[in-house]
Design a protein that fits this description.
RlmM_THUMP-like, 7-stranded mixed sheet, Rossmann fold, 359 residues
Length: 359
């Protein structure tokens, strides 16, 4: 079992209370109560419990909504000398790890917050200096190995570092938990990045191959100007884009998109579809109920939608909406939700009636 004294989770700056509340409630339900330590706008939460390894197993990363990354903290180092930060880190690792422990990679990071962003240059240069020292001690493989656990060195200040471990398969495979996506020149809007990230984060590669195939049919509710429809067409789908507003003209030229000028919140298809996606600005409980109707009535098999959260009690609203959605769907579902990097005051939900395995 991975050594450690706490969980370390990254999140969107400003959502630390929501992540802390989620971790506290889920840990208590799993029989591993603990307490969160964080500061508003810090971009991370530390959750301390009786036994970090057992706590980590009880809170798998895929089940967390407000966490971009989940790590096991193994040490906290303060008062580091800028002239030699490596020696204290090696000394801490010697105390904690067995000689047989070998990491597949090391990531030197900083929280994604305004206060920590000036540390980016230090993190880059320090990583280049630390890697040879870790390889010399036998703690780092010669070639990056994604099957092994990663060492995370997290700078909170120039003299303050957290050491943590990211387990393969139970953590995000991107630095800071942020997949790097670029805005495509042909995308009708930046909202396309949200759906692209949702497909990358909420579905495995195998699931994308299984659930997104050439010739499938989908609907995009509240589609204007067409960012999410554009993403679906790039996956091979034929799309009904429902919105009283206009779509980008170029989107209609390929023949894969049919534009219906109707209210996406009330429209229903004449025949069952493979997919429905929705990014409408509406009260989250109304959206949850409408999405449940689509699955209950068999209008689609898979869906991705956003829930716009209120300013207060966002964890409570998230839990209520997801419970409402699953209850009103009235059939067994697999549901995954995450606050994505490209989300703002919202979360993104994937649900399917098809039994899935992420492996």
């Amino acid at each position: 079992m991975t050594p450690g004294d706490a969980l370390l989770c990254y999140c969107r700056a400003g959502f630390e209370p929501e992540l802390a509340a989620e971790l506290g409630e889920r840990a208590a339900v799993a029989g591993h109560p603990g307490y969160a330590r964080t500061q508003r706008n810090s971009g991370f939460v530390e959750f301390l419990g009786a036994e970090a390894g057992a706590l980590s197993q009880a809170l798998p990363f895929d089940s967390l909504i407000f966490a971009r990354q989940k790590l096991t903290r193994i040490s906290e180092l303060r008062g580091l000398d800028p002239k030699d930060r490596i020696t204290p880190i090696l000394r801490a690792l010697e105390t904690i790890l067995s000689n047989a422990y070998t990491f597949g990679d090391v990531w030197v990071e900083h929280p994604d917050s305004d206060e920590a962003k000036p540390l980016a240059g230090l993190a880059r240069s320090f990583g280049n200096a630390l890697r040879p020292a870790l390889r010399k001690r036998g703690w780092l493989t010669g070639v990056d190995d994604p099957r092994r656990a990663r060492l995370h060195v997290v700078f909170l200040a120039g003299d303050h570092v957290l050491l943590a471990i990211g387990e393969a398969g139970d953590s995000a495979p991107w630095p800071l938990g942020i997949p790097r996506l670029r805005m495509h020149a042909d995308a009708p809007s930046r909202s396309a990045l949200k759906l692209e990230e949702a497909l990358m984060v909420l579905l495995s590669e195998k699931e994308r191959e299984q659930l997104l195939r050439e010739g499938m049919r989908g609907a995009d509710l509240g589609a204007s100007p067409g960012g999410w429809s554009w993403v679906l067409t790039r996956q091979g789908l034929r799309v009904i884009s429902v919105d009283n507003g206009p779509l980008q003209e170029k989107l209609l030229e390929g023949g894969r998109v049919e534009h219906l000028r109707e209210d996406g919140f009330h429209w229903q298809p004449r025949a069952p579809l493979d997919w429905m996606v929705c990014d409408m600005v509406e009260q989250p409980r109304r959206v949850a109920e409408r999405m449940a109707t689509w699955l209950r009535e068999g209008w689609c098999r898979h869906t991705i939608f956003n829930l716009k959260l209120p300013m207060k009690k966002r964890w409570d609203e998230t839990r209520l909406c997801l419970d409402l959605f699953e209850r009103q769907a009235q059939k067994p579902l697999q549901v995954r939700a995450r606050q994505l990097y490209h989300d703002r005051e919202e979360i993104t939900v994937f649900a399917t009636v098809t039994p899935l395995s992420r492996r």
